Amino acid sequence: MATWKARVGALLVGMLVLIGGPGLLRPGPAAATGPADELVVLVDPSGNLGLLTSVLAAGSWNVVAAESSTGLYRIQRSGSLAWSASALISSLESTSVVRGVEALVDARHVAEYVVQQTTPVYLDDDLTAASIRSADAYLLMNLPANAPSAPSVLPRLAVLDGGFVLTHEAFPAARLADQWDALDGDPNAADTGNGIDDDGDGVVDGGVGHGLGMVGAALVVCPHADIYCARVLDDEGCGDSWSVANGLAWAMSQGVDVINLSFAMDGYSEVVDLMLQDAANQGIVVVAAAGNQGASNLSFPANLPQVLAVSGTEEDGDADDVANFHANTWMSAPSRNVPGPHPSAPDAYGWWSGTSVSSALAAGTLALAIGENPGDPWSVLDDLEGAALGFGAMPQARVGKQGAGIFDVGTITAP
Question: How many CA atoms lie within 13 A of 176 on its CB side?
């Protein structure tokens, strides 16, 4: 059987051939919800960037943000006489330097290209740092009672999320290797909210604490991982294709082993797709949440071949009926009642649910396995599949569509 790296490599080569071939109908971008006054562009940074500059100047569009090392640009229409977005896209796509260009939609709207977090957390005053490892969700994964010793080479895990609370005891300062705010373009990923219900959903700062919870789950499994936090979602849990692509560019520049995406996007983004292909080609393993609609499909970007989709189970191993499922799912992890840090206080804990936390647990498991077997991050995937634990009750419609099984963490550090 081909290794995971070989399988993904073959898929990526096939995608590149098909996308470049004549007559192929590739996935199109989702429709914008407002005036297309901003676009995100991905170019070949080694190409003739003068072509990009010339087209932008001719069309009266300006660069407002850039990650030039990876060729990522956010551009904005300048004045009423500027070319329309469609005219500019057509001109840009005709150049040899542009890899992808698409509309950028307001992140506060529940619409295409908008990233939404959906996982709630419930405060529990009886939970403590000492009691978490013995919770049913972690016992299901065969988590050892004692944390493992530090490996000789610390694994590097990037968490692209939002609502990072960096003062909680579950996220020791020593574990924060670096941070980046892809929304504001500065090296401070912390976000404790602004006290305003910006998205009008009735919940003030609904995204605060989400990134903390995902980091906390990963660190329970792999306590010695170096964590790289990229804020790509705001305090309401919303972002867009620019913030996600920018966060990916930053994570790739840090040389991480694993990237966790505990969110879903409402539509296909060619730019994000291309960035994730670049990450895979760089040897980075990317995991993403399958989605929380209980549907027989995977959310974007979990549905991409270069991304490992993670579905969810109850804490007893039964299928979680809220978790999405599909034949292309890689593995499953608990997605119900997973204890972790709560943002209300530095020593507060609560219960997380949803495939967001499943993905974070998968990322922590991968980091642990990579730390024990340093080298090619992709090499551990087959071992994790081979050691997977069986499911509990599984409706027939889900059989074969929640991946190889549930992660067995105990086998990774077993003598």
Answer: 21
String of DSSP letters for 217-286: HHHHH-TTPEEEEEE-S-TTSEE-HHHHHHHHHHHHHTT-SEEEE--EESS--HHHHHHHHHHHHTT-EE
Q: 358 in helix, strand or coil? A: helix
Instruction: Please tell me the distance from the alpha carbon of residue 302 to that of residue 326, in angstroms, as a whole number.
Output: 10
Q: How far apart are CA 112 and CA 220, in angstroms?
A: 34
- In sequence order, the 6+-apart residues with CB closer than 8 A to the CB of 319 are 313, 325, 391, 392, 393, 394, 395, 398, 402
pLDDT in tens, 17-44: 333 322 222 334 444 433 478 999 999 9
CA distance 73 to 333: 36
In this prediction, residue 9 carries a pLDDT of 53
What's domain 33-103's architecture?
Answer: 2-Layer Sandwich (3.30)
pLDDT at position 6 is 52
What share of the chain in percent tops pLDDT 70?
A: 88
- The yes-or-no verdict on residue 224 having pLDDT over 70 is yes
Question: What's the average model confidence in pLDDT over 375-402?
Answer: 94
DSSP 186: B
Q: Is CATH 3.30.70.1050 correct for 115-196+203-413? A: no
Side chain identity at residue 338, one-letter code: V
CA distances from 23 to 20, 99, 343, 398 (A): 9, 18, 51, 35
pLDDT digits (tens, 9 = 90+) for 265-324: 878 899 999 999 999 999 999 999 999 999 999 999 999 999 999 999 999 999 999 999
Q: Tell me the CB-side half-sphere exposure of residue 184, using CA atoms within 13 A.
A: 13
Rounded CA separation 106/104 (Å): 7
Find tokens 């499994």 and name the residue.
221
Find, among 273, 192, 298, 186, the residue nearest to 235 by Cα: 192
Q: Is residue 362 within 8 Å of 407, Cβ to Cβ? A: yes
Q: Pairing between strand 258-261 and 226-231?
A: unpaired
Give the start-to-end residue ranges of the domains of the chain.
33-103, 115-196+203-413
- Strand, coil or helix: what is 302? coil
**pLDDT digits over 118-151, tens only?**
445 789 999 999 999 999 999 999 999 999 999 9
Query: Which is higher by pLDDT, 7 or 20?
Result: 7
Secondary structure of residue 121 in the 3-state scheme: strand
